[in-house]
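User: I'm putting together a teaching handout on how multi-component assemblies are represented. Below are the sequence lines for each component of a complex, exactly as they appear in our records. Could you produce the 3D structure of the whole assembly as structure tokens, so the students can see both representations side by side? Please keep the chain order the same as the input.
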Amino acid sequence: MFESVLVANRGEIARRVIRTVQRMGLRAVAVYSEADADLPFVREADEAILLGPADPAQSYLDAGKVLEAARLSGAQAIHPGYGFFSENAGFARAVIEAGLIWIGPSPEAIERMGDKINARNLMEAAGVPVAAGTREPVTDLEQAVAAAAGIGYPVMVKTAGGGGGIGMGVAHEEAGLARAFEQASRAAVRFGGTPAILLERYVERARHVEVQILGLTDGTVLALGERDCSVQRRHQKIVEETPSPGVTPELRERMLAAAVRAGEAVGYLGAGTVECLVDTDKQDFVFLEMNTRLQVEHPVTELVTGLDLVEQQLRIAAGEKTEISVAVHGHAIEFRVYAEDPRRFFPGPGKIEVWEEPSGEGVRVDSGYTRGNTVTPFYDPLMAKLCVFGQTRAEALERARKAVASFQVEGPKNNLPFCAELLEHSDFTDGNYDTGLVSRMRA
Amino acid sequence: MAEVHAEMVANVWKVLVAEGDTVEEGDTLVILESMKMEIPVLAEDEGVISQLKVAEGDVIQEGDLIAVIE
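Assistant: Of course. Below is the structure of the complete assembly, with chains in the same order as your input.
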């Protein structure tokens, strides 16, 4: 096992990775921007190195600076967290070429799954069901119109390079396609680097369900259950739970087997996620994409399996042979606490005047901020993740209500009132919801 | 005369109009970016942009004046 790990990320995920690194007796090195100098992750690391200004391009996304920080600190391995460099094959290669250990799948696996079009074609070849969509990148509107006519409206327009929901849009008819295409193209260039666009059939009332996989050093790929991420706004997740209330045991078995096949098809190593769209009426699913990194919502899987996924990532990256028996029990739900107004979901950065996290049996909070910190407009709005565990879904919901009510945040706008509202909404409490739930609540 | 103010702390990502331009209601004046979200700022009246107070790359605070439409 290596002795020190540089965490190439910020906020809650940097803090969460640092916690496991230190628990394992290893040294944790943080890197940070000027805007983040006062955040807990900087203080809690064994060493912290300033990268540069707030703009990610000059700090967290400056590969030269991150690698230089690793050299200066003597870090032997780099954990990318999620976002930033986590799915950047070029950076993963640069880490390996610098003689360091990349905590993640191989650059080749990142490349093959990072291009959503390639990934879809690869999955189809591996016998995993995929949504109807474009097999080649779409680069102009004329191609998009022709492709959409072939697929049939409504279509989802998204960037082939990914980008966490940014730039995604649904076109219900040809008139709306130009706008969706332009929006996705702009986002592709700004956030994804590649201008390629992908179109696929959009299912109106579907659930977004993903499977957590773990590729071990002996080539085995394990499936650690699923997560239902259907509570979304602007195609970004707000709440995730496991097990999914909308998946039957028979469908679960098929989805987990498909996720294992997906992992095996790319020789996957470490933690990854296979995202699917589930048509609950038909109890059927299609592959959407694979995320070759740790997910924001990994804690719910940890709560029901008892595993520490970051520890597994570190052990696998160190080449250790691990034997894991997967046993899932209970129910876990995560609420993303965003700095945004709870009605329109518009960003609401600001200085945190009050910050009191809930605690108690079955409650876990992964936060990136504390009282006195300022939530700035430079990064995503996630302030914390409130996770609850119960023996049953009903118990988890009850604990969630209490925890949401006792989570005190003043200063930045926050979506805790939305979480409280959701916990009283019968579609959610019945477990009978789909990706359109939030839009219907705000219609 | 209508003043257009910022609703939140944000970076000015794109400025789509110049002083002297004529705008219609609903035209996008600037695109702000905050927390990885693009927020278009729209004209709520028609008229001429008599003052434009922001430039691309600025960081503006809640309540800051963005433009004046006459």
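A couple of points students might notice: Chain A touches chain B through 16 residues (CB under 8 Å). The domain at 132-201 of chain A is CATH 3.30.1490.20 (Dna Ligase; domain 1).
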